[in-house]
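#structure-requests
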Amino acid sequence: MDMSDPLFQVAAAALFAYFAINVIEKTFDLVKGFAGGSSKKGTCAEAVTPCMQEVLKTAQETQGLVRELHKWHAVTDPRTGAMVWYSAFGTTDLKDTMAQLSETLRSVTEVLRNVVEQQKEEKDILTKVAADITELKRGR
């Protein structure tokens, strides 16, 4: 059985809740018995009802949180159908985005190299023009 199967997860949570409630109920029976009260289910249930209601409320809230967590965890890549959490390198969208970013960076780097090369050429031309102007001024 696959542990990511929602039915398995619900069954495991229900089994845990059953055992937790069973242990709590037996603990209250023992406490009631040690306190001099009766450990019969009728009187124990009356004494424990507010606490059990709080436990039930907390269990229901926890169940809601588990369902929400399952929704977040069960996200799949629409193209591959694979769970995004188990993908070794992320989703296909992420791979595509990273490839596009990489290509953009390569293009920008090439443009910047061309700009630097052009500036070097312009500097050389301006240096020659400045030298020519200086020479012309001397010749006057």
